[in-house]
Design goal:
Layout: E1 2-7, E2 27-28, E3 31-32, H1 33-43, E4 48-53, H2 57-64, E5 73-78, H3 85-91, H4 93-96, E6 101-105, E7 108-110, H5 115-122, E8 128-134, E9 142-146, E10 152-157, E11 166-174, H6 178-182, H7 195-204, E12 209-213, E13 218-220, H8 224-237, E14 245-246, E15 251-252, E16 256-258, E17 263-265, E18 268-269, E19 273-275, E20 280-282, E21 285-286, E22 290-292, E23 297-299, E24 302-304, E25 307-308, E26 313-315, E27 321-322, E28 325-326, E29 331-335, E30 345-346, E31 351-355
Parallel strand pairs: 1-4, 1-6, 4-5, 8-12, 14-17, 15-18, 16-19, 17-20, 18-21, 19-22, 20-23, 21-24, 22-25, 23-26, 24-27, 25-28, 26-29, 28-30, 29-31
Antiparallel strand pairs: 2-3, 6-11, 7-13, 8-11, 9-10
Length: about 350
């Protein structure tokens, strides 16, 4: 089998962070989501992976390279515009050939990996297998309707009146018949070739599409709140380790990871949390469900349930930062007049002065 990762979207729901960075490279628990996808495919025994890229191709290629760090081979496939998931499959035919393959959206995080469902599909004669999970708001997703025997009857993209609460997770398995489908369907009202239409075409033409209902958590990291939720869930699953320096006046609990080169000075860090390489935490408090990436400096400040990207600085704040996404090379510091609370989604290279006490 081969792997196909879709990593060409603009990430508009994560603006302003994604004005300057590919959404798939924003880290969850200090590891870019795209890296987690590659590892999930690799761990399922697949080492030949194509990545569909768009406007952020150069950044993704620079970050991922040829795949050697994961023991896989990466092939890049350029999509000239975001014309739909089925279009991404269509332009990948030369890479995929007649091989069975798994298609994985590059901004999805799933609990437990994909090895069991890959094994199930590889040992079957099914033409396709789609991963479903129960969601609270199915109208926001592609939804599957099953019959009494558990077979897929139809798929509907973002229905106003969903026939079920089973949403497509963004992980699909296909054999070569999918190319008949993507070459037969027409663009939707959005101007895109929809993968739901292609799968429906397979069903209507007698091909067997089996459902796989995922029981663990799954998150599409397309919005700031989703990123924070994914970060919290992954942090809870990390095996803590201390590779950096913690001075005797600091308090770091047993659910915290301190990566190499990081320094914790006169500070408190409550887990689950992770402090990245060469980051300095001085006279500060880092609360649960917080990921601080590499080369960050936090001093005389408090932060919890947040993600801070590399090379940012947070200094001398009167109020705690919570539920925030803070981009790369951001500087947050105190200014003269104090507000009551802070909540941020801050893009890369921002410089934010906060109002503090008198002066």
């Amino acid at each position: 089998m081969k792997g196909l990762v879709l990593s060409g979207g603009k990430g508009t729901r994560l603006y302003p962070l994604t004005y300057t960075s590919a959404k798939q490279l924003i880290p969850v628990a200090n590891k870019p989501v795209l890296f987690r996808v590659i590892e999930a495919i690799r761990d399922a025994g697949i080492t030949d992976i194509g990545i569909v890229v768009g406007d952020t191709a150069e950044e993704i290629q620079r970050a991922v390279g040829r795949g050697g760090r994961w023991g896989v081979k990466i092939t890049y496939i350029h999509q000239e515009a975001p014309l739909g998931l089925a279009h991404a499959v269509k332009i990948s035919q030369d890479f995929l050939g007649d091989d069975r393959f798994v298609m994985f959206l590059g901004d999805n995080v799933i609990q437990g990996g994909i090895s069991p469902l890959i094994a199930q599909f590889a040992n079957s004669d099914h033409n396709s297998q789609i991963v479903l999970t129960r969601v609270d708001v199915p109208e926001q997703y592609g939804v599957a309707e099953l019959d009494a025997d558990g077979r897929i009857v139809r798929l509907i993209e973002k229905p106003k009146e969903p026939p079920s609460d089973l949403a497509l997770v963004g992980i699909y398995m296909f054999d070569h018949h999918i190319f008949e489908a993507v070459n037969s369907i027409t663009p939707s009202w959005r101007g895109e070739l929809e993968i739901t239409d292609a799968i429906q075409w397979l069903i209507e033409h007698g091909y067997f599409v089996s459902p796989y209902i995922h029981r663990g958590w799954w998150i599409d990291t397309g919005r700031p709140g989703d990123m924070l939720e994914a970060n919290s869930l992954v942090l809870e699953e990390l095996e803590p380790r201390i590779e950096g320096y913690v001075n005797r006046d600091s308090e770091v609990d047993s659910r915290v990871t301190i990566e190499k080169g990081a320094e914790i000075i006169n500070s408190v860090v409550r887990g689950p949390a992770i402090i990245g390489e060469d980051t300095r935490i001085v006279n500060a408090y880092v609360g649960p469900f917080t990921s601080i990436y590499h080369h960050v400096h936090i001093e005389n400040a408090e932060i919890s349930r947040s993600i801070v990207l590399e090379y940012s600085q947070i200094r001398n704040l009167d109020h705690r930062i919570e539920d925030s996404l803070i981009g790369r090379h951001v500087v947050i510091h105190r200014s003269p007049i104090r507000p009551r609370a802070y909540k941020f989604t801050i893009g890369d290279h921002s410089h934010l002065g906060l109002l503090g006490n008198g002066g």
